[in-house]
Q: What sequence folds into this?
């Protein structure tokens, strides 16, 4: 394939504070990266939660839509100007840091992104397609129609405002059709193909081409060279494709513009790799676990995928030293086959921890990787994110009659559930944004098996981490805690699925408040009663362990909002420990309720 010249090496490293961003910039520049993503970990646009009980904005309120972050004067009064100002300032400061390190910036978001309803009341012809997912939202949400010249004009002004503040930004990475974004009449729109009448007969691809071309031209008028990769959400087996012929579309694009990674005008690959937000990974919300095996796999994949640009996501910034060391080592050698890859990892382990520890370190890394790959069997969106966090398995009490919980018992989890359907769905542990992939006993068995195998890999990793702890100079004191935390979260997931499957079984045909005679003397507890109460008890003990780990290592093992920021649907805050304690209290207060499901023992 000849020698490949990489024009842009783009790193994405999560950083909440400017100090962390500065450190990420320094580390990136030191190892030869040219770009850093500037849009991660921005303040959440709370103003977009405009309808009580509608969780859908959680999928885009953290994504800085261009028109809402750099609002043109004509629409400024329709967005939260103070928020836009605050985000603009952070981006400006991040760009100043990039300048000091001779780096450029990459802007990642979803586009064309939802605009407020009030704006469409004034400009009905700007209303594009409905883009929410109807089972996950309570309100119809509309993106602007980029087939409309007035809308393209707004975008041109937004690009102008962005470049004034942040001239270092020269690359846009757009995800589309997902997270509150889309184009009129795309077949893959979540509510189904829909859009404005004007666009109904024209070509979707043409509109996408015009949209990014007009953004690039707006930048050109400012004297800036802007590159854009617009990528549809990768369709899962049950989803539709958006752009059926991106290679043909590329022939209509100039260089530097790309749809689904096909760059104009010859359709060559735009970039290898992809940017991923911190929360969208298999171990989230656990932070700080090193994943060099996976990182090396990404380096190898990027190397074979081609493209003049390469994108690498680092997850949290806690292992950046290790990942950049691996990045540098990879540039020097190839890791073409598995043996080369292992040698390279061993070499990096040796450089970091000395030759005596390298074997054990490699054992720990590969065990962590085995765990991650095993867990991907449950990935309908990462298992711990979709269930543990967005369905609040971690903080919600598992009780037989959740409908009886009072306000105080609910307030620590209910407002943060990602749930837009009815009360019954909200109270069902396995109703995950209207997906019920883990429902019933068959699903329970598959989840239990997958979690068991994953835990066995993690215990291998833990043994290696423990033996390393004994060696001088190995800074792994938090490694064991992080692995233990991950194991707790996996057990929490296993318990949630098991509990709901058993509860569903026991509630079939049940009238819990019917007066019944006492069970005969000598009756023992039934198998199904014991299965349910023992799952509940195991979960209480698991939550106690979770609390201990978090209390011992505040801020260092689990991702939380920055100090002083409230909990959101997508992120825990410093109230987490309180919410875990409440969960335990509530579960312990409900033991008698199990007798309403099946007759208690009467020995
Ligand atoms: Zn339209």
A:
């Amino acid at each position: 394939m000849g020698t490949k010249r990489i024009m842009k090496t783009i790193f994405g490293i999560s950083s909440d504070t400017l100090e962390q961003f500065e450190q990420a910039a320094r580390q990136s520049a030191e190892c030869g990266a040219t770009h850093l993503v500037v849009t991660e970990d921005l303040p959440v646009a709370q103003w977009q939660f405009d309808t009580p009980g509608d969780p859908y904005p959680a999928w885009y309120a953290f994504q800085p839509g261009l028109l809402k972050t750099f609002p043109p004067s004509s629409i400024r009064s329709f967005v939260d100007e103070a928020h836009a100002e605050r985000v603009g300032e952070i981006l400006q400061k991040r760009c100043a840091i990039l300048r000091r390190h001779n780096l450029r910036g990459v802007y990642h978001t979803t586009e064309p992104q939802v605009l407020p309803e009030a704006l469409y009341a004034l400009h009905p012809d700007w209303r594009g397609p409905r883009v929410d997912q109807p089972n996950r939202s309570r309100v119809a949400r509309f993106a602007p129609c980029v087939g409309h010249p007035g809308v393209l004009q707004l975008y041109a002004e937004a690009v102008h405002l962005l470049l004034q503040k942040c001239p270092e930004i020269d690359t846009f990475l757009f995800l589309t059709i997902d997270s509150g974004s889309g184009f009129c009449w795309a077949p893959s729109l979540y509510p189904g193909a829909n859009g404005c009448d004007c666009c109904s007969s024209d070509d979707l691809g043409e509109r996408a081409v015009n949209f990014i071309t007009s953004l690039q031209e707006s930048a050109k008028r400012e004297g800036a060279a802007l590159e854009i990769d617009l990528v549809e959400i990768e369709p899962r087996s049950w989803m539709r494709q958006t752009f059926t012929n991106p290679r043909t579309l590329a022939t209509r694009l100039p260089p530097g513009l790309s749809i689904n990674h096909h760059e104009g005008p010859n359709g060559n690959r735009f970039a290898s790799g992809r940017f991923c937000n911190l929360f969208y990974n298999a171990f989230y919300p656990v932070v700080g676990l090193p994943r060099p095996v996976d990182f090396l796999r990404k380096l190898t994949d990027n190397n074979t995928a081609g493209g003049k640009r390469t994108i690498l996501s680092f997850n949290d910034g806690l292992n950046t030293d290790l990942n950049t060391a691996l990045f540098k080592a990879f540039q020097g050698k190839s890791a073409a086959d598995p043996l080369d890859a292992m040698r390279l990892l061993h070499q990096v382990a040796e450089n970091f921890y000395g030759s005596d520890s390298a074997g054990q370190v490699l054992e720990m890394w590969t065990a962590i990787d085995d765990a991650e790959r095993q867990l991907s069997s449950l990935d309908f969106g990462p298992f711990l994110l979709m269930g543990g966090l967005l369905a609040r398995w971690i903080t919600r009490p598992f009780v037989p009659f959740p409908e009886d919980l009072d306000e105080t018992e609910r307030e620590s989890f209910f407002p943060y559930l990602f749930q837009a359907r009815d009360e019954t769905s909200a109270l069902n542990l396995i109703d995950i944004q209207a997906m019920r992939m883990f429902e019933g006993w068959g699903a329970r068995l598959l989840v239990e098996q997958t979690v068991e195998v994953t835990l066995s890999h993690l215990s291998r990793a833990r043994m290696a981490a423990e033996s390393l702890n004994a060696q001088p100079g190995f800074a792994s004191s938090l490694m064991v805690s992080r692995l233990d935390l991950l194991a707790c979260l996996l057990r929490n997931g296993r318990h949630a699925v098991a509990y709901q499957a058993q509860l569903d079984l026991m509630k079939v045909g049940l009238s819990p408040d019917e007066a019944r005679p006492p069970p005969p003397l000598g009756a023992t507890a039934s198998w199904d009663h014991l299965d349910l109460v023992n799952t509940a008890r195991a979960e209480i003990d698991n939550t106690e362990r979770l609390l201990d780990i978090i209390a011992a290592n505040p801020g260092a093992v689990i991702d939380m909002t920055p100090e002083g920021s409230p909990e959101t649907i997508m992120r825990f805050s410093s109230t987490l420990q309180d919410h875990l304690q409440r969960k335990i209290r509530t579960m312990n207060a409900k033991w008698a309720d199990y007798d309403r499901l099946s007759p208690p023992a009467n020995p």
About this structure: The chain has a mean pLDDT of 95. The chain has three domains: 1-32+276-353, 34-271, 364-509+518-596. The radius of gyration is 26 Å. The longest strand covers residues 169-176.
